[in-house]
Amino acid sequence: LPHGRHKFIIIAVHGMNEHGRAFKWPAEFWRSNGIVTYAFDQRGFGRSPNRGIWPGTKNLTLDFTQFVRQIRAHHPDLPIFLLGESMGGGVALLTASRRDLVDIQGVILVAPAVAPWEELPLVPRASLWLAAHTIPWFILTGEGLDLRPTDNIKLWREMSLDEDTIHGTRADAMYGLVRLMDRTAQVVAKIQIPVLVLYGQRDDFVRQWMIDWLAGHLPEDRVELVRYEDGYHWLLRDLKPEKVHGTILKWMTGRGAWQGK
Q1: CA neighbor of 64 nearest in space, from 18, 12, 15, 24
Q2: Interior CA angle at 124 toward 118 and 125, to 5°?
């Protein structure tokens, strides 16, 4: 689009084991509505250095903060919204909690992976800690588990063959994800900008209790939660994502001029 027709900026951050091109499909819809989308491969994922090695919560947040600053410098006058999917939801929230971040109009969380460490089931928590500290190189694949990320089977197959997607997770990387979820849970009450939480009730990866916990601990006057009965984990990439995209567009339009008051 010509620059004069741009309405908003979405800066998107992907989920665990994925990469920036995960937003290729929703970005096409957003573009037709005057929204410019920026995304990148987070450190340790996609085509970035040290692929498959957990980079640490601090590095993920610092990288995203720098990326947001670069986009703001390129678009000094347009409203910017952060969007985080799954693991990216934690990264987006942690970034939004930074006091030195450039002006942001809101945060959109799609199936965000956020939960306190102590709220996770004890046995899986203990097993993960043990594996991460004794056999950190052990690869977890989820093979044999009946987990479906989307009803878009064609796209699912494409992603399963994608060379830039990580198809097996080191134990220490999975532990790092859980610690990221916990670190994010510690700051949710301090978020001072509007937050939109989107969740598909057929999500096999992020549990409903996690979404309930997050919505209950974000400032009540800042959060809006929308659930989709037929939605899966990849809400933005399901077969019929129109309702989700419509919700995002309407929410952004209503907050495009928000000034933190």
Answers
A1: 12
A2: 35
